[in-house]
Fold these 4 entries.
Entry 1:
Amino acid sequence: MMKQLLFIIFFLACINVNAQQVQHPYAARINRILKQLPAGNQQQLDSCMMQISALGTAGLAEMALMLRAPAKGDNTRLQFALSGYAAYVSAASREDMRKTAMLAWAKALKLTTQPENKIFLIDQLLLFGDKSVVPLLKPYLLQPHYCDPAVRVLKHIAGSEALIAMEAALEKAQGPCEISLIKALGDLRYLAAEGAIIKRAKSENPVLRRTALFALANITGGDTAPVLEAAAEKVGYGYDITGATAAYLLFVANLGHQWPTTPAMTAASNLLRRCQGDSLEYVRIAALKIVADILDYDATNTLMIASDSKDHEYSAAALALAVKIMNAANAESWIQKAERVDGSKKAAIIRMLADSKQRAAIFLFSKALKDKDSLVRMAAINAAGQLQSIEMFSPLLVAMKTTDTTTAKAIGEVLLTIRSSEVPGHIAVAMQHAPPFVQIILLQLLAQKQAVGQERLIRSLLNSPDPTVVQAAKSTLAAIGL
């Protein structure tokens, strides 16, 4: 009896050992690979990746199934190996390895029960998955735990198979899955889904409605315009939780990239006309940008009119847009306009021409140095610094002699930034007949520029009747080592 009992125990033990061997035939090899990671160099990494590849479909699947539940072990090294291999096989030259990996992932996904591990495996398909994994991911598109990562993979794969799968899933999807699918189809601009998404644009759920509106704006289909326009009009073209106005602006901007551009121009012009008042300023600016983008270099007249607006932000936006389409012909039109306006408008145009580096406006800048408005004078001074033009040396130095201390210091700061070997000479000559406070500023500039070659003219100021000028000349000579 004892012998029979021992035989049964031995038999069961053999079965258990054999079952373990059948269940995890690759465990030892996998553990040896994991001990080599992370690799110290590229050669070691390539060796590890080739060892993983040698496991084949079954071994790779077993490796994926070794992932433990989050509370029951550390998956760091295993996840590192799996994600590293997913990236490794994504190379175009490793097609066979990639096919094997997809088969292994398909097997592991079906057997994995832990949600976190299943999501991890789905995420890795972003690196190497292709249209062949679409059937594998279809069931997950309707499961709240997995729809978001599955949609991300299909969105990355794109192509007709992925698009059709997501469109079909949308008919039955609810909650977060519905949101994910609509956003992906919108981002991919899938026109066939327009009708299904329009239905969601009327939902009472603000999150769903917002997602649908923006998806429609991206798709830019033929049936979308009245839906988005009505949604924006309903909220008075203002802000609301569904982003109706922003979605409509995005739609009109996208429409402007299609031919013909007339529908987009009409829509943008209507927005400019309807959206009055300070609260809708951002809408007018967005509409103006759409018009400028459509007209491109022909938008100058429109932008000039907009720059005359009493709305400071709107006027500034028009000038900023003008910089982007500036050419010689447009620059001349703006120069002529600057001659017709004064005050802050003129200063703003000068700044805009300087920002667009229009050397044709140097005459305007030079003339503006004598303007009675301090804003215009300062704009011209800064413009000289931006253009770094030697043509403005003389006008700047002449202006220094007849201006106030604040403006003179501003001119000095600009002269200091101009990188030209001619600057010290111009400064040294100009300071001979300048007022004392200007001479001091110019001497300081020569010191900072280490103008050794101007020693004679610097020493001439040692005879100045103004003691502060004499002291400044001595300090300058000391600064340049003389």
Entry 2:
Amino acid sequence: MKKELLRAIKQHQHIRVIYLGSDGHTSIRVIRPLAIEGERLKAYCLTRKGPRVFAINNLLAIEPVVNDHAV
């Protein structure tokens, strides 16, 4: 998964993720990944309209987004 995240960072690509939150609930987010620091992904969350940090181990699925549609 880190390989795909690094590609999205390098290409300035938005991705859609399914994320398992600390409360045990899943959410679907569209994010712009910015950097990987250890086991954390720094990103701008377009869904929540703000910067966020995601635990990479809690990313259940990722897919690229092109023209606001998942590929």
Entry 3:
Amino acid sequence: MALKTTFLVQPFELHRKRLRPARQEPAQSEFGALKKAEALAARLPGAAALKVVADDETGELDSVTILGQFGDIPDDFAESLLGG
């Protein structure tokens, strides 16, 4: 089992007065994810920088960590990452 770490930015948009996820964007590093999330939150309601560790062969998630949140994020965002 080979674990691979990737960094993503999850922006959020407003749709019918509710926050919903927009298209995730990849980042090269933890620092890059934080900077990109902060920049996106300046023009969207909010964004979160994520660190995702998954099995490179099966794609099975090992862990998802929120590195930073900027602007408005749905209240249940952290729970949704855990599959709950």
Entry 4:
Amino acid sequence: MDSSDLAYDVFSRQCPSRSTLEHVTGRWGALTLGALHDGTFRFNELRRRVDGVSEKMLSQTLHALERDGLVLRDAQPTNPPRVDYQLTALGREIAERLLALIRCVEGRQDEVLQARERYDATRGGL
């Protein structure tokens, strides 16, 4: 049986879609995809845009997203070398869906903060 015969089920431990979901929805993956939705970035520009990500984590995240076909790495043979990152068509589609979720979370954050306050007041916080 080859992979085209599989019924993908992210809830199954063996399903390859699970690792892709992890790459996309992990903190740095989601933020990197969201940032790249704004355009093409060089590594350090992207690192500044995704505030708080280490160089190592951004590099690992970009490699995983590139391997999954979501990010395109364009290395230009200049001196010094120039490497640009941008979304593929698939990456853009996924980033748009992520951005809708991000906007929802941002737009409802007051409610989340109030819920946390209520929870902490009755249970003593985390």
